[in-house]
Amino acid sequence: xxxxxxxSNYVTDLKxxxxxxxxxxxxxxxxxxxxxxxxxxxxxxxITNELIYEVELVVKIGKEGKNIAKEDxxxxxxxxxxxxxxxATDILxxxxxxxxxWDFAKGFDGAAPISSFKPVADYNLADIDFDxxxxxxxxxxxxTAYMINDFADIIVFISKYMTLQPGxxxxxxxxxxxxxxxxxxxxxxxxxxxxxLLDFKMI
Length: 203
Hints:
Layout: E1 3-6, H1 17-21, E2 27-30, E3 35-37, E4 51-53, E5 55-61, H2 70-73, E6 77-84, E7 87-88, H3 89-98, H4 103-107, E8 112-114, E9 118-119, E10 129-134, E11 137-143, H5 151-161, E12 169-171, E13 180-182, E14 187-192, E15 195-201
Parallel strand pairs: 1-12, 3-8
Antiparallel strand pairs: 1-2, 4-7, 4-13, 5-6, 5-12, 6-9, 10-11, 10-14, 14-15
């Protein structure tokens, strides 16, 4: 299984999409061991003191593809979930300063909490609301209409470099506003179209 993600993929104003669409795409990866599926997550205090959350829709690939055409790309999605992309920011800053890879900043155990998956047929990909509440307070909210690169764009781009295979997961970007620091004891709830799909605590 590959777990891939795209950075900086949402705007706050629809008119900004075209301007940003041709910017260089930023793809990163996480190992399978970073997944935490519908369970509480241990705060990684042994490695970081600065943990940042970003809520994202996660798509699962349902069939193998390489050099996928834009018009076919969405047919490669089988299911959708919601998840958190955690970043250990202090590790990330150190890696950037030393120009070293930053796998440990994104790929530690528990760095990718996700919900169970639901069939893609349940959703209109161009119009999915999703949000994150922490301790009952809304922190992030957006709709897929505000994506710079939509699901198909992401799949086309990745498949130029890597063969996508059944079971691969793609974190598709976080809302442009609201990401921030998470703390031990915080309760996170992630909703898609108003339905809570992920509800867990940092322990």
